Amino acid sequence: MTSPSPKALWTGRVLTALPSLLLAFSAVMKLRKSPEVLQGFTHLGLPPSLILPLGILELACVIIYLIPRTAVLGAILVTGYFGGAMLTHLRVGEPVYSHVLFGMMIWGGLYLRDLRLRALLPLRS
After folding, report:
1. 30 and 51 in contact (C-beta within 8 Å)?
2. Model confidence over 57-81: pLDDT tens digits?
3. Closest CA to 75 of 115, 107, 99
């Protein structure tokens, strides 16, 4: 296999970086147990005891996604994490457009920078 074109590679890196930075920031805020996170958990009806475990889970998923050898597994894990977040937000009547967009960015970025995924899911023949 050859490497992706420079355009595809850089577009994939940008699409990877944006949601990864957001998730990493969110995880750090949970690990710090910031007042905003506590307020958000209360609004969503989640117990404060879940803040630390969810922060660790979120950070672990992002790290696994950012390691090239485990990026596909990381994308699957992040997708599952987003699925849980979407259900939580839907339960209180909030929109989930951003979750869907970030999920598309996670997979789109990986698709553009990883030829193994392109071989597995060819969009054109």
Report:
1. yes
2. 999 999 999 999 999 999 999 999 9
3. 107
